Amino acid sequence: EVSAAAETVKKISQLSLEAMLMEVAASPAPGLVDRFNSGAHDDMDLMTFLRSSSALSSAMTELSRVGVAHVGPRPELLPKIRSIGIRAEHDMFNATYGVNTQKGLLFLLGILTAAAGNVLGPSAKAGITGGGLASAICDCAAQICGGLVARELESLKHQRPERQLTAGEHYYLAHGFTGIRGEIEAGPPTGLSACLPRLKETLAPGP
Hints:
The protein is mainly α and 207 residues long. Helices cover 66% and strands 0% of the residues. The protein is built from 9 helices and no strands. It has helices at residues 4-25, 46-69, 77-96, 103-120, 130-144, 148-152, 167-175, 179-186, 189-203. Helix 1 (4-25) packs antiparallel against helix 4, helix 2 runs antiparallel to helix 3 (77-96) and helix 3 crosses helix 4. The protein is globular and about 45 Å long. The model has no long low-confidence stretch (mean pLDDT 92).
């Protein structure tokens, strides 16, 4: 008999893979890779994204599993997520022959996948549904990433790494943009307040 935890992991990881595939299937997506063309990218196409998503699918299962199993303070989940993410990034680059297709998606969706597991796991409070569920998952993601901007971006003002700065680090130092780190630490407001209502409106049955 399959346990409730195993069923939760299976469902979350399935939805995570579906989200990756639907993201690239959304068309038209001006400037981005979609079903019709490669947009502004000359090093990737739809098939590159399909290979990438397939390579990341097992990581989403791992992420949902560690989220379900975790019972301590939520910030303690971040190192576990990062460890899985580093391996997944390596798998992605192997599948795409070195092309960065979904590194940002891996970061954002990976954290949300683990957060969903933690919110929906057997040890979590029951009875969260609908819009409350989306808010609970986003709030969990924010707790997991609490202090991320201060630790990883603000600290750059005092000590630069020996390696080359990433694009996100460069934009933070030049313009104060917190980027994807700030978005996920805030819970992520763009997805919850702007994108999710529009998605629901689009998918709602017509009159």
